[in-house]
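Anyone able to model this chain together with flavin-adenine dinucleotide?
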Amino acid sequence: MVSTPLRPSSPLSSSLHVAIVGAGPAGSSAATFLAQQGARVTLLERGRFPRDKICGDGCTPRALWMLERLGLGTLPGGTEAAPVDSIHAISPGGVVLDVTIPPRLFGGKACVIPRQVLDERLVQRAVQAGAELREGVRVEGLERDANGVVLHCRDGESLRADLVLGCDGSPSVVRRALGAPDFPEHEGAFAVRAYYEGVRLSRPRSMAFYWEKELLPAYGWIFPLPGGRANVGLGLRADQLAASGAKLPELMERFCASSHVAAELAGARRVGKVKGHHLPFGSFAQHTTFDRALLLGDAAGFVNPLTGEGIEFALESGAFAAEAVAEAVAAGDLSARGLQGYARRWQTRFRTAFLLNRKLMFAFERPRLLDRTFRAADRNARVRDELADIISGEASRITWRFLAAVALGR
Ligand SMILES: Cc1cc2nc3c(=O)[nH]c(=O)nc-3n(C[C@H](O)[C@H](O)[C@H](O)COP(=O)(O)OP(=O)(O)OC[C@H]3O[C@@H](n4cnc5c(N)ncnc54)[C@H](O)[C@@H]3O)c2cc1C
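re: yes, here you go
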């Protein structure tokens, strides 16, 4: 495996001890980059690998690029990953759209990797880089003072470090202990997923998205996996779920029985349970930088409000955190002020896209607008290209050309 080390603006010394809570994509990414820079890193994880994580398992082109930067190769997951090069989507009015991911988006390659596989590879990479992994350790609280951070674990152990990174997903114990506000209901979603086997997909190299009219505002997906398997799921905003009084597993049953999805899953069997989890939206991400502490990934709320994708942001926030820690150490200032480089980096890279995707999330709840957008994209290569950017989480603005084409339906 070839790894690309960070730009070592200021290599860290092993006298800097960073405790990272949570070994998902955010925690393992930060651990790898920090250990590569020479810091002493302790990665605390309540689970034991290989462990499952409820997810659609879809890796965007940028997520793949980050995985390559981390040294996991060009198709991490090997034979357990399904390469993807296009998006298939069906609007509420039945407009079918097939979009090839443009090569300019990190080579136009995406993939689907079960998180049980991906997260284990990522954590192995962190250990290989020099991080100490401690599994089966659940952090329950923390205190900070002028000299450092003390983490309290469920088994009664306390651990001292110079700095803590909260990478413990949503909901986050570290987030709460740092006093950051909880995510409002309308700034998050709930989603469920299940695995199917014996699947014969009509487009095995596409991530497929479905906006079924009778299930709006929920939308669902079928993502291919090797060996005739697929990840099938559905999600909607938390406030809409609460208002509807619906239960996600029931919506999932209806989704799987809807005509397009039932045709794709004909003859397939569900393996295991339908499982759900919360997703916090990046449009609410504000509180990420504290004295001797940073929040990364889902703990910070780095999820695309339109697509629910968060792996790429979790991985990239790990790189940003490592760069910012190096700067703060060089300046001898581990306060929130000294660590501001972290907020500066993620805001420059993610914030505009999060805010744009939040607006689009509301727009995509209008069935007619979605039909018109898909129709325009089907007819117009430039609109299709722009839509690929949006769905891949790479767009930071909408052009007038796009809006005009949607308004005119061409
Ligand atoms: C149904 C569903 C489908 C999704 N589909 C996609 C998709 O297809 N593509 C995509 O990019 N994103 C998807 N997401 C979002 C994606 O799963 C998250 O954004 C991503 O996992 C965030 O990574 P993370 O490292 O921040 O947190 P997590 O992956 O949640 O990792 C957090 C880690 O912290 C550990 N932990 C938690 N609390 C403690 C504690 N107190 N002490 C110690 N350890 C702790 C957990 O065990 C876990 O290992 C989906 C989410 C859901 C719910």
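The chain has three domains: 17-77+113-183+282-359, 185-279, 367-408.
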